Amino acid sequence: MAQWRKNMRLISSLRCASRGVIMGFSEERNFRFGVLVLFAVMLGGWWLRVPPGAYVLIVGAWVLLLAVELVNAAFERFADAIHPKYSQIIGTAKDMLAGAVLLLAAGAAGATLLLVVATIRG
User: Fold this and answer.
1) Is residue 27 flagged as an active site residue?
2) Is 12 inside any structural domain?
3) What positions does the entry give for ATP binding (predicted)?
4) Binding site residues, as ranges?
5) 18 part of a folded domain
6) CB 31 within 8 A of CB 70
7) pLDDT digits (tens, 9 = 90+) for 88-99
8) Which of 38, 61, 62, 69 is catalytic?
9) Binding residue numbers for substrate
10) Residues 69 and 30: beta-carbon distance below 8 Å
11) Which of 13, 28, 36, 97 can bridge 72 by disulfide, Cβ–Cβ 3.0-4.6 Å?
12) Annotated binding site for a divalent metal cation: which residue ranges?
């Protein structure tokens, strides 16, 4: 009986997590753009026959970017809910999280570009 409850908790957790991803896709423009880029990277990597290890790294970098984008969006909503008026501290925290997303996007794009160029050159 205890195992059944654990399985139900897992299923419930997966439902909540899926709902979060769906909300991110439906309500966050940057998340939708990131998903589009991820699919383009996956398709391009497959078409160019990027080596499996490199393929996993670049796809992983873009998936990580999407995860951090969800964290950023969640923090912004939470901060706005608990402190609707402007706060310099909250504004700075939001900017720092956006900066983390920017750095990760630049790193993922750079890694993708380097691996694609290396693959094309052979």
Assistant:
1) no
2) no
3) 9, 28, 76, 94-95
4) 9, 28, 47-50, 69, 76, 94-95
5) no
6) yes
7) 999 999 999 999
8) 69
9) 9, 47-50, 69
10) yes
11) 97
12) 28, 76
